[in-house]
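User: Before I run my own analysis I want an independent prediction to cross-check against. Here's the chain; please return only the structure tokens and, at the end, one sentence I can use as a sanity check.
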Amino acid sequence: MSDEHPNSDNHQKKHTLSLLWHTDLPGELNRFVESEQPVLIDLTGLCFIDPYGTIILYSLIRHLSKTRTVHIKVPEHQGVFNFFRAIELGQQLKKYDVEFDKKTITDNVKIRKERGFRIFWERSLSNDDEVEYIALEILQLARAKVALLRERENHDRFYETISELLSNVEVHSRVGQASIIVCTYNPKERRPYIGIAIGDHGVGIPFTLRGKFPELSDSELIERATCAGVKGSADTGGMGLYEVRDLVEEFRENLVIRSGGGVFRIRLKSKITVPDMKDSMLLPGTQIYFTISEPLRIRKPRLPSLFGC
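Assistant: Structure tokens:
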């Protein structure tokens, strides 16, 4: 999937990354992190991308552009191209050393909230008012899609989970900023659902917990961070990951957390902890994605953990 080819303008070699699906991304990143040569990211064959894939792709481009020019061939799939324009991905990347083969992707496209998007690029989370504003925006969209969240108990629980996740960014990432993408879906084959992705460029979960659990791998440290009472520091919160895991498991939904060289996943009725990926996902910060849809009314038991939490 990756090779080098001469640039017709100046014969400078570029690394080329071609993506047909955003899940191709983790296994390809290690080809670029050590080099400072220009990179061509070919998205012409990309036929689907969700908020999590978008956050990862944005983090990759942002990270690579610090040390070299990133050239991007935009998706030919009209739905993906329109999605990138709607969430203003091109506009956001214009501030970095990035060049697009089609300038129209950077056009400023105003969208209505009713279309089912909420986008917050590099938003400061340094105060409670900002956290509250974003959490309420997400809650408003989620309530419109998931009827169970209109019940007071679930309404309050969802809001507190989102608020705690956003507060964790401010407290633990050491950068105080995050990008958030929220999208709603109405597929034919399953119940309507909402997907929520949160990404920061901070120090990452393994870094904050390594001193407490030096024997654990990065993936195990992420799972440990989803246990009740586990904190990166003694005097701050830390319940956000536990709360989102508990919510996802009760609703039988999906969760993925990527940080450092590790990934932790919960997918529907099975839990998968992916082995360390130290050679392929050397992105800064943490990226979290989870889905919520109308669940079954019967509460399911919590999935077993490696650590009994």
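Sanity check: Helices lie at 51-64, 78-86, 89-93, 128-145, 152-172, 205-209, 218-225, 240-251.
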